[in-house]
Write a structure and sequence with these properties.
Layout: E1 13-15, E2 19-23, E3 34-40, E4 49-54, E5 57-64, E6 69-76, E7 87-90, E8 94-100, E9 122-124, E10 165-166
Parallel strand pairs: 1-6, 2-9
Antiparallel strand pairs: 2-3, 3-8, 4-5, 4-10, 5-6, 7-8
Length: about 230
């Protein structure tokens, strides 16, 4: 756990949150060349979150008093991203990111992480997923809820990364938060928020298929041809 993390998190159990992902790719349009990433962290206030986004890695830590849990996840990405062009949105349920791929390339990443090993907490976001050869027919993505990387509190590190984004400092101390950020101190009326998060189960273990691997790809990144 980071040494500078809030003291109230010390007695909480640490949980690896569920992470879902999808992607788009393009060899000539940066706006269509990115990774969707959602970290499920309900009831975590903005003041108790920290996101460190670097060109080849991502680290998230957040504490929830209501869940009595500290969420922590570290990811080494398959390829480089551009943190300065990436976007973040925080809600009462999760943290969503649009990570801009650094290299313009027509082919999808074969998987999200550099390490091909299976992670029980990592799943494909099929609500956002579009097959590589069907991207042109997919509707444009609405990114209006995402905050830009140049907002107050999101300073760049010397190596081009965010250098550790402290969500409590967003808004430059003027009381304003990141566009799309909800006030987590208020009850949104959803009874599901009061329920404990179910434990994540490795429901894919039987078939050996990793959610780290892009749908339609084998573990080596080769496209799986359909047999008619």
């Amino acid at each position: 756990m980071p040494a500078d993390y809030p003291a109230q998190a010390a007695d909480a159990k640490q949980i690896t949150p569920e992470v879902t992902w999808a992607q788009r790719s393009s060899k000539d349009d940066a706006e269509k060349n990115f990774v969707y990433l959602t970290i499920s962290v309900p009831d975590v206030p903005t003041k108790d979150m920290k996101l460190d986004l670097q060109p080849t890695s991502l680290t998230f830590t957040g504490h929830s008093d209501t869940k009595k849990a500290t969420y922590h996840v570290e990811m080494e990405l398959y390829a480089e991203i551009d943190p300065s062009a990436s976007k973040v949105n925080h809600s009462a349920r999760d943290v969503e990111m649009k990570l801009q791929k650094k290299e313009l390339k027509e082919e999808y990443w074969p998987r999200l992480l550099k390490d091909p090993s299976k992670r029980h907490w990592l799943k494909t976001d099929f609500d956002k997923w579009v097959d590589e050869d069907e991207q042109d027919g997919a509707p444009d993505d609405d990114m209006g809820q995402f905050g830009g990387a140049g907002m107050p509190g999101m300073g760049m590190g010397a190596d081009g990364g965010f250098g550790g984004l402290d969500f409590s400092k967003l808004g430059g101390g003027a009381g304003g938060g990141m566009p799309g950020m909800d006030d987590l101190g208020e009850d949104d009326g959803d009874e599901d928020d009061d329920e404990e998060m179910p434990e994540l189960e490795d429901d894919k273990a039987a078939d050996g298929k990793s959610e780290n691997t892009a749908p339609g790809k084998d573990e080596g990144g080769k496209k799986i041809e359909e047999v008619e």
